[in-house]
Amino acid sequence: LVFAFVGVPYYDNALLWCNNTARYWPEIPVIQAIVFATLIMCAICIDVRKKSRASLRYSSRRNSVTLSDMVFVQACWFTGAFYVTWIPYLAIQYMWSSGKAYDMYGFILYASISVPLQGFWNFVVYVRPRYFGRPK
Question: Strands (DSSP E) along the chain, which ranges?
Fold first, then answer.
């Protein structure tokens, strides 16, 4: 919240969206979100793996795909969708700050289309196990 109020004097119209035109520091919350999302997904995978291994000794199906494997794959898909959306946005912001992105139409187009599609990619990842089935 502090970043939003500190940056108010710097907000201006950028090429695609209303943006903070200060150099580099406005992207710190995006970088923090990328790091925290990655750490949270890793923590979820580690926790599920521990619990799955603890309960595996009571199971008769030791050679099947475990719950921790399925959670790991799904977490990788969600994190990948997050990276596909926000890494290009962050890159284009830094390139605009340095003044080098104005002649890269393809990359600007990709970055500007990927951010609004984050919900779509999350939906695709969410329904993916239903269409590809769960491994046996």
Answer: 11-13, 18-20
User: 42 and 61 in contact (C-beta within 8 Å)?
Assistant: no
Contacts 24+ apart (CB under 8 A), 45-49: 45/71, 45/72, 45/75, 48/72
pLDDT value at 66 more than 60: yes
Q: Going by C-beta distance under 8 Å and a sequence separation of 6 or more, which residues neighbour residue 34?
A: 82, 83, 86, 87, 90
> Model-level pTM greater than 0.85?
no
* CA–CA gap between residue 38 and residue 82 (Å, rounded): 9
Residues above pLDDT 70, as percent of the chain: 71
**Which tokens is 24 given?**
């580099």
Those residues whose C-beta lies under 8 Å from the C-beta of residue 39, and which sit 6 or more positions away, are none
CA 20 to chain centre: 21
